[in-house]
Backbone:
């Protein structure tokens, strides 16, 4: 039976800022360690993936080896469109073409052209097309796609241009991309989300958008940075009770200390041992005990408040997880990874946590 990593193309998208690049890197790492030649594709002008592996980024359009059998590449849609127009323009240099009004006019008059050419380049990295072009096929292309709305525009570009261009090189490239995106055994779609209302809503909208545009659905939603449920209801009651008890003791000590100061002041005043109105201090040992009690009460109170806050955040996250599990796709939870920096060690840990869960996705 075909596994998720047996596809030619995995598309990873979701709301911005949910960790798509990290998950794409983890999936690429899993595929490479399983023996597949894998490339992770970023779309845009900046390359962030090599930094996770402690490497300098490569220029757009240049493949960057990351580890054994794992590479990355950044595709800049503007550059991709310029290169394509340059091919059509023959001897016209890229610099002249980029500065000409023709390029700017075409880019503005043909919305989706950048997206289509980007998808053609991605398609060329997969299987047979890449083998014919370069003699080094990739078994798997992991697309770190833009955020949901832009991703749907990227994936829908072949359908838009397929209705316009019916013959010629545009039509040929469009058909190949469309077949790749619409064939279940060749491509798969994953959403990454945080367990927040907005991110989960966007993942559900992505599911609907894929169905409307490609007749496809999400194979899985990966819920990133999920907090565990650390405390039961009984444990929370005990935590609150301990904080209240500590606060009560501190209050009693403070009242007792104030009484001791008043009594001591009255005694000294009656004996003429101190001027009237001068503040009298309790014995040093009592003051020290009161201070320690206050510190203990403050620490217990802060700990109880932190426990409550973490519990409430985890509760809200798991409520959003339940929203996703009412749909037909798989839901994979990735626990929050604690660490000072997000590096290859953290990506490796995330990959290990994904590995068993991915076995359920077909």
Residues:
């Amino acid at each position: 039976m075909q596994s998720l990593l047996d596809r030619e193309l995995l598309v990873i998208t979701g709301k911005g800022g949910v960790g798509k690049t990290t998950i794409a890197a983890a999936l690429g790492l899993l595929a490479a360690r399983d023996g597949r030649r894998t490339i992770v594709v970023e779309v845009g002008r900046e390359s962030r993936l090599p930094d996770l592996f402690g490497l300098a980024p490569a220029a757009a359009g240049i493949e960057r080896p990351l580890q054994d059998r794992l590479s990355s590449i950044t595709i800049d849609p503007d550059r991709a469109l310029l290169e394509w127009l340059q091919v059509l323009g023959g001897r016209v240099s890229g610099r002249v073409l980029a500065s000409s009004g023709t390029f700017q006019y075409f880019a503005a008059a043909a919305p989706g052209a950048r997206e289509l050419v980007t998808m053609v380049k991605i398609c060329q990295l997969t299987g047979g097309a890449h083998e014919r072009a370069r003699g080094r096929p990739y078994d798997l292309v992991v697309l770190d796609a833009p955020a949901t709305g832009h991703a749907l525009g990227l994936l829908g570009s072949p359908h838009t241009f397929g209705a316009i261009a019916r013959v010629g090189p545009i039509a040929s490239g469009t058909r190949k991309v469309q077949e790749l995106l619409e064939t279940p055994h060749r491509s798969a779609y994953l959403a990454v989300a945080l367990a927040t209302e907005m991110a989960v809503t966007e993942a559900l909208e992505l599911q609907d958008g894929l169905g409307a545009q490609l007749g496809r659905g999400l194979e899985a939603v990966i819920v990133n940075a999920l907090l565990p449920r650390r405390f039961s209801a009984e444990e929370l009651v005990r935590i609150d009770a301990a904080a209240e008890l500590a606060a009560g003791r501190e209050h009693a000590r403070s009242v007792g200390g104030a009484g001791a100061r008043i009594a001591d002041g009255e005694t000294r005043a009656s004996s003429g041992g101190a001027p009237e109105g001068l503040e009298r201090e309790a014995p040093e040992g009592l003051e020290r005990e009161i201070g320690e009690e206050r510190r203990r009460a403050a620490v217990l109170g802060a700990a109880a408040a932190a426990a409550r806050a973490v519990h409430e955040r985890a509760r809200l996250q798991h409520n959003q997880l339940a929203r996703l599990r009412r749909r037909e796709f798989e839901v994979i939870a990735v626990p929050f990874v604690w660490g000072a920096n997000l590096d290859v060690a953290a990506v490796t840990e995330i990959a290990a946590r994904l590995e068993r869960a991915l076995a359920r996705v077909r």
User: Anything to note?
Assistant: The radius of gyration is 31 Å. Residues 12 and 262 are 71 Å apart (CA to CA). The chain has a mean pLDDT of 83.
